[in-house]
Amino acid sequence: MASKEVTSTDEFVKGLWRDNPVFIQVLGMCPALAVSNTALNALAMGLATTFVLLMSGLSVSLLRNFIPREARIVCYICIIATFVTSVDYLIMALSLELHRALGAFIALIVVNCLILGRAEAFASKHKPGRALLDGLGMGVGFTLALLFIGVVREILGSGSLFGVAVFPDGFQTWTVMVLPSGGFFAMALWLLIVNRIKQKQAAAAKTVEVTS
Amino acid sequence: MSGQNQVLEIGSSPHVTSGASVDVIMRNVFFALLPVCVFAVFAFGIAAALTLTTATLTCVVTEHVICRLNRKPTTVGDWSVAITGLLYGLTLPPDLPLWMVAVGAIFAVAVGKALFGGLGCNAFNPALVGRAFLQAAFPQAMTHWSLPFAADRFSELPGSILAFPFAEPVYDAVTAATPLARMKFEAIQAENPDLLWGLTSGSVGETCGALILLGGAYLVARNMMNWRIPVSIMLTVSLITWVFMQIDPAVYPRPAFMLFSGGLMLGAVFMATDMVASPITNAGCWVYGMLIGGLVVVIRFWGGMPEGVMYAILLANAVSPHIDFLIQPRVFGTGRGAG
User: Fold this and answer.
1) Residue B1: its pLDDT value, please?
2) Contacts of B133 in chain A (CB under 8 A)
3) pLDDT(B310) > 90
4) B133, B136, B168: residue with CB nearest A172
5) B73 preceded by cis ω (within 30°)?
C-alpha cells in the first residue's frame, strides 16, 4: 500500500471507511453523541460540518504558504470560525426550528477537533484540490456516521425515521435512546460492528498474504 | 475447618481452601432467595412466577449464547448467571411486560457482565445494570405497581404482562402506589408490620423484609456473605434518618420505615453484597456500606424519585475499586511496631 501512489479517489474514499472520523478516529464525539437523537438533526449537523470542513480545508490549503508556523492554530481557528458563523446564519435562515434543535452545537463546530485536525494534518500540507477531496471524504464519512447513530436512536427512541412513524400505533418508545446515554449506547453498538468487520478484514488479508 | 480430614492440595498455593467454589456459594444464595421467591409468587400470583422465570431463563440463555459466540466453554453451569437473573427478576414490578423483562435481562448479562469480561470482572452488579437500563428506557412501565394479594392473582394474568414485544403495555389492573411513593407525594407512612411482612405493593421480591433478612442471616451463618455491608448500610440509613426525624418529624419518616420500605432490604442484603463489585477488606466494606446508606437517604429525601437504592448501589460499585486502593491492609511485618 505504502509504495502505491495515493490517488485522488483514495483521498476521498479514506474518510468513508478506512479513516472514518467517528468510527475509526473517534473524533468529534461531542456533536456525534449530543445531536444525533434524531436522523434529521444528525444529517443537518453532518452537512454543516461537511461545509465547514470543505471551505476551511480549501482556505487553509490556499493560504498554507502565508500562514506563519508559530501562529497557525490562531489562523486556522479564525478561518474555521468564519465559516461556522456563516453556516450558523444559513441554518437559522432555512429553519429556525432546526437551529433551536441543534442549539449551541452549531457554534461548537469551531472546536470540533476533526476540522482543526484536518486543517493541521492535511490541508496545510497539500494542494487545494487534494484538500477539497479530503474535506469532502471526511465530511461525508462524518455525516454517514452521525446518520447511522441518529437512525438507531430515532427508530428506538421515537419510533420514527426523519419524523415519519415507522411502527404501527402502540409502539413502546425506548426513552433512554433519546437521552444522552442513548447516544453512547448507539455509538458503542456501531463501534462494535465496525471493529468486528475490521478484524474480519484484517484476518482475511492475512490469509491472502500467507496463501499468495 | 477442622483440619482433620482435609485434603491438602499439592502444587502452587492456595494449599488449604474452604471448599466454597462459585457454584457452592451460588447454590446457597439460591436457597437464601427461595423463601423470598415463594413469598413473591404468593403475594403477586402467576405474574411474579412468570417474571422470575423469564428473567432467569433469559439471563441463562444470553450467557450461553455469548459464550458460544466467543467460542468459549459455557459458564452457565456455575449458577451465577441464574442467580443474577433471579435477583434481577426480584427487583422488577410484578406487572411489567415480559418482553421488557427479557430486554433488561439481555442487557444485564451482555453489557453488565459479558462486556466487562464475565464473572469476576463485572464492575457493577449485573442485575442492577439491567434494572437501571429498564428504568431509563421504560420509565412509565417501571413505576407501575399492581396491588398485592389481589383476589384473582392465581387465576388471571394482568393484561400488561403479555403485551406484544415492542408494544406499549395496556394496564387493566388496579394500581397501588408503593409505600415510598406515598411517603414522597402524599406524606403517608406505611405501618411497620405491613412493611415487615410484605403486605404493601412494590417490586416482586422487595416487599417482605423479614424473609430477606432470614435469607441474609442464612448466608452470614454459612460465612458466604460479608455481614458488614448490610449492617453498615442499615446503621447509616437509620442514623441519618433519626437525626432528621428529630429536626422535623412531619417531613422526615422514621428510621424503621426507611429500612423496610422500597428495595433497601433486598438491595442491602443481596445486591450490595455482590462479591465482585464490593470492596475486599472489612474496613472497606464499612465505608462502602456507609456510602450506599448516605446516598440512599440523599436520593430518597431530596431526589426527584421516591426510591434510590439501585442508583446508590451502582454508584458505590463504581467507587469500590477506589475504596480498595485507599484502604489497604497493613502488610505483615511492616508499619506499627515493625521498627
Assistant:
1) 45
2) 176
3) yes
4) B168
5) no
pLDDT classification of A2: cutoffs 50, 70, 90: very low
Specify if B8 maps to a domain. no
Nearest residue on chain B to A181, judged by CA atoms?
B136
B139 touching chain A per CB within 8 A: yes
Domain total of chain B:
1
- Which residue range forms the structural domain that includes residue B274? 22-163+172-326
Closest CA to B126 of B226, B58, B206: B58
Q: Which of B189-193, B254-258, B322-326 has the lowest mean pLDDT?
A: B189-193
Spell out the domain ranges in chain A: 8-146
Nearest to B138 among A170, A172, A181 (CB): A172
Nearest CA to CA, how far is B262 from chain A (Å)?
Answer: 23
Compute the nearest-CA separation of A44 from chain B (Å).
Answer: 26
Tell whether B107 is covered by a domain.
yes
For residues B90 and B206, is the Cβ–Cβ distance under 8 A? yes
pLDDT, tens only, A136-172: 999 999 999 999 999 999 999 988 898 888 888 888 8
Is B311 domain-assigned?
yes
Place of cell 467517528: A22
Mean pLDDT of A64-74: 91
- B31-39 mean pLDDT: 93
User: Rounded to two decimals, what is the model's pTM?
Assistant: 0.87
Closest CA to B145 of B194, B91, B108: B91
Q: Which residues, other chains included, contact B146 with Cβ-Cβ below 8 Å and sequence gap of 6+?
A: B44, B47, B93, B94, B95, B158, B173, B174, B175, B176, B201
Residues of A in contact with B137 (CB under 8 A): 174-177
CATH code of the domain containing B214: 1.10.3430
Is A149 near chain B, with CB under 8 Å?
no
